[in-house]
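Hi support team,

I submitted a single chain yesterday and got back a structure, but I'm not sure I'm reading the token output correctly. Could someone confirm the output below corresponds to the sequence I sent? I've pasted both exactly as they appear in my results page.

Thanks,
R.
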Amino acid sequence: MSSPYVLYGAPGSGATSIHAALTLFGASVMVMDVAPWQGEDQRAKLTRVNPMRQVPVLVLPTGEVTTESAAILIWLADHYPSARLAPRFGDAARGQYLRRMTFVAAEIYSLYWVRDEPSRLAQTPEAQAFVLDRTAERIAECWRIMDAQVPRGLLYLLVDELSVLDLYVTVVSRWQPRRLRFYREAPRMAEIVRRVDSEPRLLEHWQARYPFVGAWESEGP
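Hi R., thanks for writing in. Yes, this is the structure output for that exact sequence:
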């Protein structure tokens, strides 16, 4: 029996979409709960596996370490082609798939390095509040731009089949400024992420790693 994947990342973090993909693949995975945004003690746990001290980190069964959520998802989908969670090489949708995966990573996900700890870039409470406001507006703008490019009538973001892009957007869309704002800015994608929320094969995963409880659909700063 081969070694399991080892996935570093707390519930609700960027590791959640990767864990969802591994669940769909039926792959064995050992989860290491680490939340680097909670302080230096948590970040120190990642030093050995990721010099950036960020999650997600995926250790492959071979022992190789890989990081960056979009890169991990792309690699996994290519490594498990029978699961059909990404357009294959030569597929007409492959270019848009890579474009949108990169867009979410570069234009939206990257802003959470600031939002998790606005003191990284702003010293005073007033300046930190300004950073949170402006990054929230930028995230909303990016979702709006992406939504306008999603063809009407599709069941999912690329074609009528679930992909790792859908998993990625479904998780990131739950982060601040949260889903109510996302629904307003991205009405086409809103229907799609709700469909992924209710994917039967992932119900146990969502319940365990990102449960739909409390104010998860509320609107935050």
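A quick pointer for reading it: DSSP finds ten helices and four strands in the chain. Let us know if anything else looks off.

Best,
Support desk
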